[in-house]
Amino acid sequence: MFAILAAVFFAIDWTAALLIAAIMVLVSGFLDALDGKVARISSKASKRGDFVDHVIDRYADAIILAAIGLSVRCPVSFALFAVIGVMLASYMGTQAQALGLSREYKGLLGRADRIAVLVVVSLIQYVFEMSGTSSLDINDIFGYSLIAWMMIYFGLAGNITALQRAHTIWKSLP
Fold first, then answer.
1. Which of 94, 69, 66 is nearest to 162 (CA)?
2. Which residues of 20-31 are buried (b: 16+ CB within 10 A; e: fewer)?
3. Where do the domains of the chain lie?
4. Is 57 one of the catalytic residues?
5. Helix, strand counts (H, E) of the chain
6. Fewest beta carbons within 10 Å, which of 56, 73, 115, 171?
7. Phi-psi group of 133: left, alpha or beta (phi > 0 → left; psi -120 to 50 → alpha; rest → beta)
C-alpha cells in the first residue's frame, strides 16, 4: 500500500510530493523488512509467505520506478532501463534458490541499497526544487534531473548486479 502511495506521489508534478514519496518509500521498506521478522518470531514463516513477499516486492519496485518514469522528472526510457535492471537483479537472486542453491544477495545494488538511494536522492531533489534554483542549474545536470540520473544508475547497477549474481550462480553449479 505504501509503495502505491509512493508511486502516486512520485508521479505528481508538485515539489512537496517528492518529500511525501520519500517518506512512503521509507515506510514501505521498513514494513517489508519487518514482516519477515514477525513471521519468523511468531513461527509463521512459510514458503507461501516468502513467495508472496517476493511477488509484492517486485510489484512495489516496478510500480515506483514506472511512476517515476511517468513523472516530469524522468524520461520513460530511463525508467524502463531501471525496471529491467532491478527485475533482472532480483530474478538472479531468486534463480539461485530455484536451482537448489541459497538465495543470492551479493552484488552492486541490492533492494535495501535501492531503497536508501531512492529516499536520499528524492530528498536531495526535493531540497534542490524547494531552494528555487532554475531548471538550468542544479536541477538540470547535463539535461536531466537528479532523479533521472538515479534511474540511469539503477539500470546500470541493476544489470551489473544481475550479471554478478549470474556469474556467482554459474560458478556454484556442478
1. 94
2. bbbbbbbebbee
3. 2-172
4. yes
5. 6, 0
6. 171
7. beta
3-state secondary structure of 141: strand
| The amino acid at 8 | V
User: In this structure, which CATH number among 1.20.120.1760, 3.40.50.300, 3.30.300.20, 3.20.20.410 belongs to the domain 2-172?
Assistant: 1.20.120.1760
- Of 35, 50, 53, 57, the active-site residue reads 57
- Cα dihedral 55/60/66/71 (nearest 10): 170
Give the pLDDT confidence of 140-168 residue by residue, as tens digits: 778 899 999 999 999 999 999 999 999 99
Q: What angle do CA 54, 125, 87 make, to 5 degrees?
A: 20
The greatest distance separating any two alpha carbons of the chain, rounded to the nearest whole angstrom, comes to 58
Locate 98 and state its grid cell. 530455484
Each residue's pLDDT tens digit, 49-95:
988 998 999 999 999 999 999 999 999 999 999 999 999 999 998 99
Report how far residue 159's alpha carbon sits from residue 146's, in angstroms, rounded to the nearest whole number: 20
